């Protein structure tokens, strides 16, 4: 964990962005494909690299403004940040346990990310390749990627929920 005065938004987003920046050039590394890092990767797909620069400047206020750019409201932004933190704290507590419990925040985070992409899609056209890449980054039991699939089965109460949600929201192409 980082010191409080060096936090970007909260512990979870600080760690997520740290993982992203540190592993950006290591596309096949475990850290680059961890759930926290994938949160940032999906945010970059939605909002662009600008949000990474805001992390580097530790500009949380501008980060929130960017998240609102396509109509994602302040309450949802706050909830997203709180849920990320709750996921992170729960996950850290679980890391030393032999038997792990499901993390109820896991799917909530992904729903917020899907909602952000839906808002962007309503304002700015999103090409099918980007939508497909975004969908493939989701952690669901239907994902072709073994790591994402097994993480979904391990952490989600319903590992199929996000796949169903993404389809209902029109994220799936074809």
Outline the structure in words:
With 174 residues, the chain is an all-alpha fold. 64% of the residues lie in helices and 0% in strands. It contains 10 helices and no strands. It has helices at residues 11-23, 30-33, 35-47, 50-56, 60-67, 74-94, 106-123, 128-137, 146-155, 161-168. Helix 4 packs antiparallel against helix 5. 34% of the residues are buried.
Judged by helices, strands and strand pairing, the structural class is mainly alpha
Largest sheet: none
Count of helical stretches: 10
Summarize the helix and strand pattern as letters.
HHHHHHHHHH
The span between the termini is 41 Å
Number of E-state strands:
0
SS strand fraction? under 5%
Question: Uncertain regions: pLDDT < 50 for 5+ in a row?
Answer: none
The oligomeric status of these chains comes to single chain
**What spatial form do the alpha-carbon principal axes imply?**
globular
Which percent range fits the helix content? 55-70%
Radius of gyration: 15 Å
Rounded mean pLDDT is 94
Which descriptors apply to this entry?
globular, 10 helices, 0% strand, 174 residues, mainly alpha
Draw up the topology in text:
Layout: H1 11-23, H2 30-33, H3 35-47, H4 50-56, H5 60-67, H6 74-94, H7 106-123, H8 128-137, H9 146-155, H10 161-168
Helix pairs in contact: 1-3, 3-7, 4-5, 6-7, 7-10
């Amino acid at each position: 964990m980082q010191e409080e005065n060096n936090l970007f938004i909260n512990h979870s987003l600080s760690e997520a962005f740290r993982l992203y920046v540190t592993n950006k050039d290591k596309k096949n590394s475990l850290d680059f494909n961890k759930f926290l890092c994938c949160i940032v990767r999906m945010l970059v797909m939605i909002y662009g690299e600008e949000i990474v620069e805001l992390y580097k400047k530790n500009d949380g206020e501008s980060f929130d403004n960017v998240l609102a750019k396509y109509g994602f409201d302040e309450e949802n932004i706050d909830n997203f940040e709180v849920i990320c933190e709750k996921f992170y704290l729960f996950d850290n507590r679980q890391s030393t346990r032999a038997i792990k419990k499901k993390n109820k925040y896991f799917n909530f985070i992904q729903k917020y990310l899907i909602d952000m992409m839906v808002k962007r899609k309503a304002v700015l056209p999103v090409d099918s390749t980007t939508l497909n890449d975004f969908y493939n980054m989701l952690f669901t039991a239907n994902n072709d990627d073994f790591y994402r699939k097994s993480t979904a089965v391990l952490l989600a109460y319903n590992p199929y929920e996000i796949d169903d949600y993404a389809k209902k929201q029109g994220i799936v192409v074809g």
